[in-house]
Amino acid sequence: MTTNDTPPDATISPAVDEDHDEDLDDEQAEALTRDSRAPRDLLPYFQTLGDLPPAPLNPADLFPVSQPLEVEIGSGRGLFLVNAGLNCPTINFLGVEYDFKEGRRAARRFQKRNFNNVRLLGADARIVMRDYLQTGSAQAIHVYFPDPWWKRRHKKRRIYSEEFLVQAARILHPQGLLHAWTDVEEYFQVMLALTAKNPEFIPLPAPAERSATHDMDYHTSFERKKRKLGLPIYRARWQRR
Ligand SMILES: C[S@@+](CC[C@H](N)C(=O)[O-])C[C@H]1O[C@@H](n2cnc3c(N)ncnc32)[C@H](O)[C@@H]1O
Fold first, then answer.
1. Taking a C-beta distance cutoff of 8 angstroms, is the pair 200, 162 a contact?
2. Is the CATH number 3.40.50.2300 carried by domain 3-240?
3. Among the four residues 60, 163, 180, 205, which has the most C-beta atoms within 10 Å?
4. What is the pLDDT of residues 95-112, one digit of tens each?
C-alpha cells in the first residue's frame, strides 16, 4: 500500500492498514469473474462462475446434501468456513472470494478435511449477491473484516453498502441473520447507520468476545491478527424481519 492509502485517522497505525490488502480494482475483479475457470485440482471445493450453470445458483450444483445455506462474503483464507464447517455439519457454507490466491488457499483446507458442506466460489460477491443467490435462499450472511478502502475515491468499492443490504434482505429468509465484524471503527459506524436505515433488519445484541484456546480458535484470520495486536474488534448482528 502506498502512503496515500493511509487513513486520515491517526489512531490507526500503518501496520494495521497494511493488513488490508486491496490490490484488486473493480475491472480486475470483473475480469477474473468472467474469464476464469477453477483449476481442476481443487474441484469441487473451489469453483468460479465459469464452472457453474448460468444464474441463478442452484445449491445442488455445489453441495451433495440439501440442507440450510449460510454465505460468507470475502472469505480470505477461510478460517471461519473451516471452523463453521466442522462445528455445523448440517449446514452448507458458501464462501465468496475474488482473490483467487486466497480462495484457493481456503479451498485446500476444505479439501484436506474432505468437507462436503463447505465450498468457495471465486467471484465478485456483488455479482453473486445480485445475480446468483436466490430470494430467501440463505439463513445467514457473514461479512468479516471487509476491506475499508481508505481513499475517498475508493470508498464506493466498500462491500457493505445500501445495495449490499438490499440484496442481503432479499437473499435472507425471514428471521435470517446478518453478521458483520470489523476492526475499523469508522467503517463500523457506517455499517450501523446504513443498517439502521434499512427497515428489514432488527439489531440483536452483539456477540461477546471469547478467549481463544488455541491458534485456530478465532473467528477469522483477520480477527486473530487484530486481537494479537491488542486492537478492539467491533461486532454486530441483525435479524431479518
Ligand atoms: C480484509 S480481508 C478479510 C478476510 C476474512 N474475512 C478474514 O476476516 O480473515 C477482506 C477479503 O474480502 C475480499 N473481498 C473484497 N471485496 C470482495 C468482493 N467484492 N467479492 C469477493 N471478495 C471480496 C478480499 O479479497 C479479502 O480477501
1. no
2. no
3. 180
4. 999 999 999 999 999 999
